[in-house]
Hints:
The complex is a heterodimer. By secondary structure, chain A is mainly alpha-helical. Chain A contains four helices and no strands. Chain A has a single domain, classed as Non-ribosomal Peptide Synthetase Peptidyl Carrier Protein, Chain A. Chain A is globular. In chain B, helix 1 packs across helix 2 and helix 18 packs across helix 19.
Amino acid sequence: MNKLAKIFSAVLDIPEGDITDALSPETASNWDSLNAIILLTEIEKQFNVQFTYDEAMGIKNFGEAVALVRSKGGTV
Amino acid sequence: MKALDYIALYREATNGTRKGLRPLAVNLITNFTDDILAKILGGVCVEAGFHPVITRAPYKQYHLVLSDAGHPVQTAKPDISFFFFDITAHLHSEFHSREHLDETVEHVRRYCKGVGKPVVFSLPLLPYTGPYGHLHHEDPVFVMVEECGRQLRQLAAELPNLSIFDTNKIAHALGETAIRDMRGLYAFDIPFTSDFFTALALEWLAVVVALTGRSRKCIVVDLDNTLWGGVLGEAGPLGIALGPGYPGLAYQNFQRALLSFLKRGVVLAIASKNNLADVKEVFEANPHMILKEEHFASMQVNWKDKSESLKTIARELNIGTDSLVFVDDSPLERGLVAQALPEVLVPDFSIQPEQYSQKLFSLNVFHQMSLTEEDKRKGAMYAEENRRRAEERTAATKEEYIAKLEIKLKISQNGDMDLPRVAQLTQKTNQFNLTTRRYSTSDVQALLAEGGLGFSGDVTDRFGHYGTVIVALVRLKSEAAILDTFLMSCRAMGRTVEQAFLRHIVGELARRGFRTLHAAFIPTAKNEPASGFLAEMGFDLTRRCDNGTEEYLFGISPPVTEERDAEGTPLITVI
C-alpha cells in the first residue's frame, strides 16, 4: 500500500501514517476536484494503468482506490 | 524533479514554510483549465529561488481579461506574463475563426504595451495528426495555427517586450502522445499531461533566470575523456580518440557543440589536470581538434584542485563562480567541485560521449532575451583580451598600460543607443553596477520617454573592439538629476573608462543647467567592485540606510567654455 499512500500523501499534503481506507473527500479537506484529477493522473502514470472516466469518478475513498488499482493488475 | 515535487514546492512557498525567496509577480493567461500548470510553474519558480504570486485569467475569460485594459489581471503589475493557447483539432474553439485570432493578436499587442514588462507567448502546437494525413498543411486548423504563429512573430518584431516560444520544441522532445491527455481535454478541459506542463514551465523559467541576470556565462571543460577520448599523458597528442570513427567522432561533435555555444556568446574555459606543454601540443599538432587555443578565454592546466582552477577562471573573466557550468567525465572531480563551490552548475556527465552534446543542449541555463552583436563577437573579444594581458605584463605601471592601449570611448545618448544591448547590460551586469536595477528594452524606452537621459559607451583600443560596455541612466526632476543606473561590463574594468564616462555625463548635465546629481550605491553579494567609485569621483556620502544603501550627492560646477574637464587625464579619448 506504500506506493499508493505516497501519492495520496504528496498530493493531499497529509502524513502517510494518516492515510487509511476510510480517507475520503469528506475527511480530507485537500481532496478537492483539482487534486482528484492530479491523483487520478499520477496513479495511472505510476502504476501504468488506465481507468475509465466512470471508474475514476466512482472512487469514494482510499480503500476503493486500492481496490481499483489492484483490479487493473497494479501492485499497490 | 517531477510534477508532484514541483506542486509540493509551490505549496511550501504559499503556506510560508519556505522562506528567503525573491518575490515574483507572474501573470498566466491560457484558454483551458490551468490550475495544474499554475501549481507546477509555481514550484519551478520556487526551486529557482523565487516566491511567485501567480495571477490567472479566470477560466474561459482570457478574452474578457485581454479586451479590458482595466481588468485586475492587467493591472496586477506582473514582472512577467506567460501566454499559451491550445488550438486543437479535437475540440472546436473560438480560435477556429480567423476573426477571433486577429482580435486576440490585437489584444495581445495592447496587453504588451500596457504591462510594459516581459511577455512570453508560447505558440499553439501545430496539429500534425488529423484527417488530412501528410497533407496537414491543407488542414484549416493547421493553417490557423500557422497563421497565429506568423502574426505573433510579426508582433514580436515590433514589440521589444514580447518573446515568442515555439512550443513544438516540447512536443518534439516528449512526443505528442505523451503530452496530450484526451480524457483530460473532454472531462476537465485540461488538454495536457503534467509532463508537458512541467516542460513548459521549465522553458518559461529560463526567461525569468535571464531577466534576473542569473543565466550561466561560461562552460568550463575538462580535457581527457571530455574534449577527447583517452588520457593525453598516456596516448599522446595524436593517440587520443578524436576524429573519424567511434568514439572520436562523438568527441569531435561535442567540440562543435561547444564552438556553437561560443558563437552565441557563451565563453569557454579549460580546467584540466595535465601538463600544459602536452595540451599545447594537441592544439598545434592534432588536425582533428575543432576547438583551438584561441577559443578558450582561460586555460587552467595544472595539478591543483579543480575548484581552485574554477575560481581562477572566474577571477580572470571577472564573472562570479555562479556563472560557471563545469563539465567533467569524472564523478570524483565533479563531486569535489560541487562540494567546494555549490553555486557552480555541475551536470552529470557520467554518460557516453555520444550523449555529451545532447546533455549540454538540455541544460537550458544559457538563455538570453536577445542576442546582440557583442554576444556573437565574444570569442574574438577574449582572444584580444589575452593579447592585452600580454601587453599588461610588459608595462611598468597601470597608467602606462592604459596609455598603451590607446582607448577610445564613443558615447551615444538616448535615441542613438542600442536599446536591446543597454537592456541586456542591465540584466547581466552584476559586479560594476551601482544599483543593479534590471530593465527590459521597454523599461529603458519608458525612462527616456519620461524625459530621462540614457548614455552608453562603446569602447575600442589598439587590440580590438569591446562593443557597448558601459551604461548610465539618469532621471531628471525639475532641479535635480538622479543617477538611476551606472554600470560597466566586467571586460572593461580596470581601464578608467568609467571615470571618463561619468565626467562626460556630468558635463552634459552641467550644460543642461543641473547643479546637483543624486546617486546611490545599493550593495549586493556581487557589486563590491563598484563600492568605492562614487567617493573616488568626489561624490559626498549623505546617508547610509539600514539596508546598506549609501546615498550620495555631487555638486555640478557650471559648464566651462572648454567641454574638456581640466582634471581629466588624457588616458582615454572621448569621441
